[in-house]
Design goal:
With 865 residues, the chain is mostly beta strands. The protein has five domains: 238 residues, 3-Layer(aba) Sandwich (Collagenase (Catalytic Domain)), CATH 3.40.390; 79 residues, no CATH class; 115 residues, Immunoglobulin-like (Sandwich); 140 residues, Immunoglobulin-like, CATH 2.60.40; 144 residues, no CATH class. The strands form 13 sheets. Strands 41, 43, 45, 46, 48, 49, 51, 52, 54, 55 and 57 form an eleven-stranded parallel sheet that branches. It has a seven-stranded parallel sheet with strand order 42-44-47-50-53-56-58, with no helix packed on it. Helix content is 9%, strand content 30%.
Length: 865
């Protein structure tokens, strides 16, 4: 299944479904206005009662009545990225999700600094036509870019006040609705009237989180219980995760600025209140003092690098330190690091502020001596909770129940007044999946330990002297892993059943019609342990009542998606490709990469968004979104030696600091705590993969790319095909796919660029300006002497001696040469079948991380190559 921008066919969009229902600018429509349709609530996934789950309510703003499919596509894209990111990937079944279609009079967002004009196909993505900031937009939730009508870098988007001339729009609304309500009032009215009745809990419940997706291509959003994000921005879903990190995880910003383009002085205040910022400067001191994230110091970060003390955070470029080089709270695109994840998972399992892991169970008190006790736990998608039954209270004898959620007391013959105790534990501590290292029994936002009630629940009962009355025959599946879409091939699938007082129902599992052994009558099945073959499978659970053999039963089925998604790449045209164990192109200054995340669509009723990810030099997985401010999904990700600046932020940076930075960080003084930026010339490893809608993480593919400083001079003469011999006396001669039978000579002041060619008589250049060889073969000696600007040889083969002497390499990047060291002639990924001699060059010959093969003696400053 290929990555899709919309859930409905693009052809249908273009076919004219978008006719519009209201004005585009805020002026009243001509003629009687058509009343807006009432908001419509879509249950995207419901995993349990709203009172026992986190509930994410996603609302649309600035989508006109005929743009609701675009809204649902934006919902799908946001959720796809969320479900691909921990802890949401693992704890997906702890969350209910509802999407609310809300028609707006106008499209877009008020005071959008880069407001786009709605396209005839209904989208207002980056079509090239802009209308700029408009303060008169009338949208359902009154979203507005704060100061966006004046600040081109505005990004904070909030629920605004009543729109201009709001009283004139009364006819658009149902009777009794105030057309001059504020955005917050509209938000509350819609939740109270349409959403709360579906959830069965009020909008003020602490386990309700709203996310408003507003209809624009412009980057923006804000956190809080009522978070917001851009629907059309390439980074929109990443904004959502960052903002939910604020509102759900109580995480603070780690980026180095308050205003993007302003360098603030270093922070000099007291220890920050944030649990992931500090003024400590010594990691060992932090460990000795057991301060903040001391338990994670030295660990490889989930978002790249090593957890320690990294300069900058809390909107300061220095003075405050953060745990990781990258994390979602510093630069969107990366995952949460362990320090953030530890708090996020606690907030999910504890339903934000309730501080309690949800657990249903047999009513507490005295129970019949032959009755059945039961608990219904949550079910993480990729690991089991541990259920431990004891006789004699919390310190009593442990029963061997094989992690069962049911306990038949009739099998135990316990005397009256015996206490039966059960512990349900999520093994997230260091001895389990190692997500929570705080052993505390606390349950607050900043002190939720793995021994606390967010991860551990206990219950106990007293055995009485009565017996259980037989329950009538019944076998019902009362809950199960969602089956409205396929499950992943390594998921733990579960069912819940009704609970007779005097017996345990039987659960039988089958895969593709063949019974799966279930010796302990488990309600869960670990698909990962079955090691399924690739492809699509059918899983079923059948519940029967042993009191009624062959009688009542119930059954639930799932489609199992065990087909790995892929993310095929396309790279921009290189100078040459090197012989390597993987693809290895060579570029000047940087390159572009297109990913096409795709997946088999078997088992899905509609195309679903497939997430692409990339990783640079093992430095944390990063979500692929094309590139900021460029159309999706056709724009490539741009890797450059110092990145590309977009609205005072830098993306695709190959230099120090990682893929993302504030643009000003590139030019901070060398002695600044955040200074010393070194451009990323050299050889880089890039991995990429896809994650599908079921949660399957595809195998990663990889390639290397070598980035060289400089460029090729513009050709004044181009030669191709067969040539007898070549003499370059002036200008720039380029040989492309040429075959030269004789020698090639370059005179003083001239330049030569050879690409994918063969030279059968050797090459001599004396006093040239530039000599470049890419992917070419020279059968004979090569002698390059006294070049005045540039010698660059990449992926070439020299069948003979190679001499590089007295050449001056003029740096193409002063910052790189100053901080990384001067470089002489460039010789990368080439083969020399003869002696290699280098002497008297302006600096040592450099291979930029792409080693050469020399089948002969090496001399001079090439001896160490």
């Amino acid at each position: 299944m290929r990555l899709k921008v919309a859930l409905i066919a693009t052809a249908a969009l273009v076919a004219g479904l978008f006719s519009g229902v209201g004005p585009a600018s805020g002026a009243p429509a001509d003629g009687p206005p058509a009343p807006l349709p009432e908001p419509k609530v879509h249950p995207i996934q419901v995993t349990g009662p709203a009172a026992e789950r986190l509930n994410l309510v996603i609302m649309g703003d600035g989508y006109q009545a005929d743009q609701q499919q675009l809204f649902l596509a934006d919902v799908d894209r946001n959720l796809a990225v969320m479900w691909a990111t921990e802890p949401f990937r693992t704890y997906r079944d702890y969350i209910n999700v509802y999407a609310v279609e809300i028609a707006s009079i106008d499209y877009g967002v008020r005071c959008d600094p880069d407001g786009r004009v709605r396209h005839p196909d209904g989208t207002i993505r980056d079509t090239g036509e802009r209308e700029g900031p408009i303060n008169t937009k009338n949208t359902a939730l009154r979203m507005i870019f704060q100061n966006g009508c004046n600040d081109p870098l505005s990004r904070g988007t909030v629920y605004g006040g009543a729109p201009v001339d709001c009283a004139n729009y009364a006819a658009y609304y149902p009777a009794g609705v105030n057309p001059c309500e504020t955005g917050s009032q509209a938000h509350n009215r819609i939740l109270d009237t349409y959403v709360a009745p579906v959830l069965g809990i009020p909008r003020t419940a602490q386990n309700v989180q709203t996310l408003a997706i507003f209809n624009t291509f412009t980057y923006g959003g804000i956190g809080g219980t009522n978070a917001t994000t851009s629907g059309g921005s390439p980074q929109g879903p990443l904004i959502s995760l960052h903002e939910i990190g604020h509102s759900l995880g109580t995480l603070a910003d780690e980026y180095p600025y308050s205003s993007r383009d302003v360098v603030r002085p270093c922070y000099t205040g007291n220890e920050p209140g944030s649990f992931h910022h500090t003024t400590y400067t010594d990691p060992q001191k932090m460990v000795e003092d057991q301060h903040k994230w001391w338990r994670w110091i030295g660990e490889e970060s989930l978002s790249g690098g090593t957890i320690g003390l990294h300069e900058g955070g809390g909107s300061y470029p220095c003075g405050q330190r953060r745990p990781s080089e990258h994390s979602m709270m510093r630069w969107i695109g990366f995952d949460f690091d362990q320090v953030g994840l530890e708090h996020m998972v606690a907030r999910v399992t504890g339903m934000r502020n309730s501080g309690q892991m949800s657990l249903r169970h047999t009513p507490l008190g005295t129970v019949p001596s032959d009755g059945v006790l039961w608990v219904e736990t949550g079910q993480p998608r990729y690991h089991e909770l541990q259920v431990t039954w004891r006789v004699g209270g919390p310190d009593g004898r442990v029963l061997d129940t094989h992690n069962s959620r049911d306990l038949d007391l009739a099998d135990l013959d316990l005397p009256a007044v015996t206490v039966v105790h059960v512990e349900v534990r999520d093994p997230v501590g260091p001895d389990g999946i190692d997500w929570v290292r705080n052993p505390s029994t606390g349950n607050t936002a900043t002190n939720s330990g793995y021994n606390g009630p967010r991860f551990v629940q206990t219950r106990q009962w007293t055995v009485g002297d009565t017996t259980a009355a037989p329950s009538p025959p019944a076998a019902t599946v009362t809950g199960h892993t969602i089956n409205t879409q396929p499950v992943a091939g390594d998921e733990v699938v579960y069912v819940r059943t009704n609970h007779p007082d005097d017996r345990i129902l039987d659960v039988a599992w089958s895969l593709n019609g063949t019974a799966v052994p279930n010796p302990h009558n488990s309600r869960t099945l670990d698909l990962g342990a079955l090691k399924l073959p690739p492809g699509t499978h059918t899983l079923a659970a059948t519940v029967t009542d042993p009191a009624d053999p062959g009688g009542v039963s119930d059954r639930v089925e799932w489609t199992v998606d065990n087909a790995d998604p892929t993310a095929p790449r396309t790279l921009s045209q290189p100078l040459t490709r090197l012989a390597d164990d993987m693809e290895h192109p060579v570029y000047f200054n940087g390159w572009d990469m297109w990913l096409d995340p795709q997946d088999d669509h078997t088992g899905y009723t509609e195309d679903r968004y497939v997430v692409g990810q990339l990783r640079l030099n093992k430095d944390g997985w990063y979500n692929y979104f094309g590139f900021p401010e460029q159309p999706m999904p056709s724009s490539p990700f741009q890797f450059r030696h110092s990145g590309t600046d977009v609205k005072a932020l830098t993306y695709g940076n190959l230099g120090t600091g990682g893929l993302s930075k504030a643009a000003f960080e590139q030019t901070l003084p060398d002695d600044h705590p955040g200074g010393g930026f070194v451009p990323g010339f050299g050889t880089h490893l890039v991995e990429h993969r896809a994650i599908d809608a079921a949660g399957n993480v595809g195998r990663s593919s990889a390639y290397r790319a070598t980035v060289l400083p400089g460029s090729s001079p513009e050709c004044t003469t181009a030669l191709t095909g067969a040539q007898s011999s070549v003499v370059v006396s002036a200008g720039v001669t380029c040989l492309r796919n040429a075959r030269v039978a004789g020698s090639v000579t370059v005179r003083p002041g001239a330049s030569l660029v050879v690409s994918d060619s063969s030279l059968n008589g050797g090459l001599t250049a004396t006093g040239a300006q530039a000599v470049q060889l890419f992917g070419s073969t020279v059968n004979g000696p090569v002698r390059i002497t006294g070049t005045t600007r540039d010698v660059t040889i990449a992926g070439a083969t020299v069948n003979g001696p190679l001499t590089l002497s007295r050449n001056v390499q003029v740096t193409a990047n002063d910052r790189f040469s100053r901080l990384a060291g001067a470089y002489g002639p460039v010789l990368v990924g080439s083969r020399v079948n003869g002696p290699l001699t280098c002497a008297g060059n302006s600096a040592a010959v450099k291979d930029f991380g792409a080693p050469n093969t020399v089948n002969g003696p090496k001399g001079g400053d090439c001896a160490a190559l």
